[in-house]
From TrEMBL:
Source species: Calidris pygmaea
Protein name from the UniProt record: Transmembrane protein 234
Family under the similarity heading: Belongs to the TMEM234 family.
Subcellular location per the Swiss-Prot or TrEMBL entry: Membrane
Main location per the UniProt record: membrane
């Protein structure tokens, strides 16, 4: 029971890290399309430099990768058929809320309802297994 509770907390933390960083990554990557260089390799290196030196991108990126590492470590003991839908569903909700707070267009009430119904369906499938 204690281990399962710890796994649940870890998976919720993963979902929060994944879900909350997505909108910040989009915000941090603003301006990337203005980076221009001759040749594919130079363009790629310029884009990597732009993102790598941009703390508004790198901080959420590192937090997101920390969530991935925690997910990987948690999967050693968690039930995969429960962990993946739980994390993805919760991350979707957190992304929606975070994006809305940051003023992103989340697609209106119908899009939100569709996402929430998808999450509910996943949760029902998980609960039934």
């Amino acid at each position: 029971p204690g281990c399962a509770a710890g796994e649940a907390v870890a998976l919720v933390l993963v979902a929060v890290l994944w879900g909350s960083t997505g909108p910040f990554l989009r915000t941090g990557a603003e301006g990337l399309e203005e980076v221009r260089c001759q040749g594919r390799l130079q363009q790629l290196l310029a884009e990597i430099r732009f993102l790598g030196l941009n703390y508004k991108y790198m901080v959420p990126f590192l937090l997101n990768q920390g969530g991935s590492l925690l997910f990987y470590l948690t999967l050693a003991s968690a039930d995969l058929s429960l962990a993946v839908p739980l994390c993805n569903s919760l991350a979707l909700i957190v992304t929606l809320v975070t994006g809305r707070i940051l003023g992103e267009d989340i697609g209106g009430k119908r899009a939100v309802a569709g996402m929430l119904l998808t999450v509910l369906g996943v949760m029902l499938c998980v609960a039934g297994s």
